[in-house]
């Protein structure tokens, strides 16, 4: 593939200047109109005051200031050229033809101003006016130039003058049409870019939905099957232990209940993965601080001695914050059970103070898993930090300094939750 040619610096600078000028004109649309009117009127007045062609006396009974007053009036008409392009053009064209037909004497510079105003109005009509009126305007200005050159004005070379005048008029109309086409082309490109952006977003959403469906299917096939087998075996073992009068029956029944709760959680997650636009609040309720007692009972049944102390208005916490608190305590206690080398204990403290939520889990468990000579904190501790960061909080996790056990200390700031944070975490 051949390399792309380098951009011309001058052309690139011109494009940037043009883009800035168009942006300024969009922000201040009347500034350009005022500048055009001021420039044209200034030229006419300066010719009246200092021009060599300024008359010293009246000509044809017309006061000397009349031509200049007409030039200033034509310049002022350009103020409305973009709001009423057709009306301004037709008025100026009729005025120029009527001036030529009446034989009103004009200095050379004022005649140029008349021509400039008419051509500028014709350009504006071609650029932003209705195309049907532009066609009629082209016929009008063409017929008016023919009458002026061949009938009203006394020119030594009328055909050459007619060719030059009509060529100038054609150039003004062509420039206006070019500006119109360029503006339409740019608008079409911008519209196409917007549509492509929408299509890209839709395609990304479809890909994400397909990936969520695949993940949900894999989770259902693997975790759902294994959990179902575990629950069935636990229920069967509990029934058999009951018949034999063994003490393990309550523990086995709790194992089955825990497995069923895990299956419910799995179904809830799979439902979220399958339905992107579903309101999370329409799903089954997520756990909150009110479910901590049941969580602690399950943990105690697993052999961990747990104490819990709460303070503050926990009921004022939103569902998203309550879910975050529940998950952090759940993960901290799960790590204690996993890493405890023997009988362990944990103390949970939950405090709500003003707009802050303070969670502390102090245990006497063991160290994190050591693999290949390195401590691996596990995904659970990373999840605790991520949940804390979601609410603008901090998470301090490490040894408690007593020689054994760890401390999980988390501070949340619910006021800094991002928009859309709900109970679906």
UniProtKB/TrEMBL annotation:
<dbReference type="InterPro" id="IPR050482">
    <property type="entry name" value="Sensor_HK_TwoCompSys"/>
</dbReference>
<dbReference type="InterPro" id="IPR055558">
    <property type="entry name" value="DUF7134"/>
</dbReference>
<dbReference type="Pfam" id="PF07730">
    <property type="entry name" value="HisKA_3"/>
</dbReference>
<dbReference type="InterPro" id="IPR036890">
    <property type="entry name" value="HATPase_C_sf"/>
</dbReference>
<keyword id="KW-0902">Two-component regulatory system</keyword>
<dbReference type="InterPro" id="IPR003594">
    <property type="entry name" value="HATPase_dom"/>
</dbReference>
<keyword id="KW-0547">Nucleotide-binding</keyword>
<dbReference type="Pfam" id="PF23539">
    <property type="entry name" value="DUF7134"/>
</dbReference>
<keyword id="KW-1133">Transmembrane helix</keyword>
<dbReference type="Pfam" id="PF02518">
    <property type="entry name" value="HATPase_c"/>
</dbReference>
<keyword id="KW-0597">Phosphoprotein</keyword>
<dbReference type="InterPro" id="IPR011712">
    <property type="entry name" value="Sig_transdc_His_kin_sub3_dim/P"/>
</dbReference>
<feature type="transmembrane region" description="Helical">
    <location>
        <begin position="110"/>
        <end position="126"/>
    </location>
</feature>
<keyword id="KW-0808">Transferase</keyword>
<keyword id="KW-0067">ATP-binding</keyword>
<feature type="transmembrane region" description="Helical">
    <location>
        <begin position="158"/>
        <end position="177"/>
    </location>
</feature>
<feature type="domain" description="Signal transduction histidine kinase subgroup 3 dimerisation and phosphoacceptor">
    <location>
        <begin position="211"/>
        <end position="276"/>
    </location>
</feature>
<dbReference type="GO" id="GO:0016301">
    <property type="term" value="F:kinase activity"/>
</dbReference>
<protein>
    <recommendedName>
        <fullName>histidine kinase</fullName>
        <ecNumber>2.7.13.3</ecNumber>
    </recommendedName>
</protein>
<feature type="domain" description="Histidine kinase/HSP90-like ATPase">
    <location>
        <begin position="321"/>
        <end position="413"/>
    </location>
</feature>
<keyword id="KW-0812">Transmembrane</keyword>
<feature type="transmembrane region" description="Helical">
    <location>
        <begin position="31"/>
        <end position="50"/>
    </location>
</feature>
<keyword id="KW-0472">Membrane</keyword>
<keyword id="KW-0418">Kinase</keyword>
<feature type="transmembrane region" description="Helical">
    <location>
        <begin position="87"/>
        <end position="104"/>
    </location>
</feature>
<feature type="domain" description="DUF7134">
    <location>
        <begin position="24"/>
        <end position="180"/>
    </location>
</feature>
<feature type="transmembrane region" description="Helical">
    <location>
        <begin position="133"/>
        <end position="152"/>
    </location>
</feature>
<feature type="transmembrane region" description="Helical">
    <location>
        <begin position="62"/>
        <end position="80"/>
    </location>
</feature>
